[in-house]
Amino acid sequence: MQLAAAQLAAHLGKGLRPLYTLHGDEPLLVQEAADAIRAAARAQGYTERTVHTVAGAHFDWSEVLAAGGSLSLFADRQIVEVRIPSGKPGKDGSAALQQIAQAAAGNEGTLTLVLLPRLDRMTKSSAWFAALDGHGVTIQLEPVERSALPQWLAQRLARQQQRVAAGEEGQRTLQFFADRVEGNLLAAHQEIQKLALLYPAGELSFEQVEAAVLNVARYDVFKLSEAVLAGQAARVQRMLDGLQAEGEAEVLVHYTLAEDIRALKRVHDAMAAGRPLPVALREQRVWGLKERLFERVLPRLSGTALDNLLHGAHVVDGIVKGLKAPGWPTDGWQALHRLALQLCQECASQGRGSNPRGTIAA
User: What mean pLDDT is predicted for residues 355-360?
Assistant: First the structure.
């Protein structure tokens, strides 16, 4: 049974199931969900806990199977926690997880908690995950998107009886806070706790938040891609500066930008040949948020603009590898800034067009 993260508290209030599976790449959200399940279990007499971390292809699954079938002399209920950091249990693990799932309902003294990273579509269709989902509760912990981060921060502040000012001033405070902690929810949680220690309950001013909150933002190239396609120029520049400061490889940043440009070009060409936009996106394996961004940008993106961007990507490929190009910066990061902002500008300008969805600009 699939359960939304927001429904977990209400679910636990009605009683525990013998099997829970949490999957997601945001450590704070996974940790909080697991803590909530453990707390509910302790309240119902699950006093013992064993943890098994699956590491390598030769992990001994018999220990996990044995743990689920035995109780100590001092506890009549136990939590068996299985952590699979790779998300790939292997052949033996697949069989063991299916056995654990099938036996869960008949093993009243054991609560099994399986922790996994974010799973792709193929893994979710595997026999072992289907068994976990079919015999227990699965919860996908989605990351908090940048657009939703200010509201998430406001909700967390409200839990400790703190809030920002109403209206535009409060929104400015939340946006500032979000800029400082983007991509690092665990640090955001710590900064919120710091505010509770520094200031009493009630309203927080912008100056108080500015003085207290450190710049702990972390960026990754995938979020950079989303910001570029969304036409968010200021955020793109901030993310590029952050990636450079964190020591990210120039070639990886270039590859991400160039791959987006190539994908836009391939889908554009497919549409020009008569393919419907949804079909072209599916053929190029463009999914999720990026699919929605492509849908917004592509119908009004010209072939000339894409050709220019492809040429720019080719030039920057040489620059980040040490070559020079007339009219371009010699520094790799400066060249990446220029290429990213060119693509960002093209994506941002699309809102002024009026072409119908599903057609392309000449």
Answer: 46
pTM above 0.85, yes or no: no
When pLDDT is cut at 50, 70 and 90, the band that residue 71 belongs to is: low
- Provide the strand spans (E) within the chain: 19-23, 48-53, 78-83, 110-116, 137-140, 162-164, 202-204
Helix or strand or coil: residue 214? Answer: coil
Closest CA to 346 of 260, 279, 240, 251: 260
Q: Is 140:87 a contact under the CB 8 Å cutoff?
A: no
Task: Using alpha carbons only, give the angle 295, 297, 303 rounded to the nearest 5 degrees.
Answer: 115
| Among the listed residues 141, 140, 181, the one whose alpha carbon sits nearest the alpha carbon of residue 157 | 181
Banded model confidence at residue 316, pLDDT cuts 50, 70, 90:
very high
Domains and CATH numbers, the chain: 5-140 (3.40.50.300), 146-212 (1.10.8.60), 221-352 (1.20.272.10)
Percent of the chain exceeding pLDDT 90 equals 68
The runs of H, that is alpha helices, within 23-105 are 27-43, 61-68, 90-104
Give me the torsion for CA of 288, 222, 260, 177, rounded to 10°.
90
